[in-house]
């Protein structure tokens, strides 16, 4: 599959805390797949990039927001069921990690938990 501007879409497996893959999501970037997961109501998101040993960690949420005035008609029609509001997903990337083994069940289970965020923020210049 090819995305806009020739960007290749990639597949990401959603991994639970037990190290089991429970779903597959597609996007040009890991964030695209994480937004899809967050829109389903999940807060702690661990995605494994298929074909690699890379894990991506995200924290996500979804909230009801008012429909923008310039939204397409199909969004406005869907919003009528929720009193003129739609769900909007938001994610924040926590980091990445490398798996030691391709098979998920051979890796340390601590890899499948969201790492603690550092309290440090990068200073803006």
Automatic annotation (TrEMBL):
Keywords: DNA-binding. The lineage of its organism: Archaea, Methanobacteriati, Methanobacteriota, Stenosarchaea group, Methanomicrobia. Pfam families: MC1 (PF05854). Protects DNA against thermal denaturation and modulates transcription. This is Chromosomal protein MC1. GO terms for molecular function: DNA binding. GO terms for biological process: DNA protection. Transmembrane segments: none annotated.
């Amino acid at each position: 599959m090819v995305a806009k501007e020739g960007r290749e879409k990639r597949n990401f497996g959603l991994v639970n805390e037990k190290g089991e893959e429970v779903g597959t999501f597609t996007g040009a970037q890991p964030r695209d797949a994480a937004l899809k997961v967050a829109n389903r109501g999940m807060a702690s998101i661990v995605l494994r990039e298929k074909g690699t040993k890379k894990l991506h960690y995200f924290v996500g949420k979804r909230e009801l927001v008012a429909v923008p005035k310039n939204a397409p008609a199909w969004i406005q029609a869907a919003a009528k069921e929720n009193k003129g509001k739609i769900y909007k997903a938001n994610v924040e990337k926590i980091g990445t990690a490398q798996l030691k083994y391709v098979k998920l069940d051979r890796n340390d289970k601590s890899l499948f938990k969201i790492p603690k965020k550092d309290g440090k923020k990068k200073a803006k210049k």
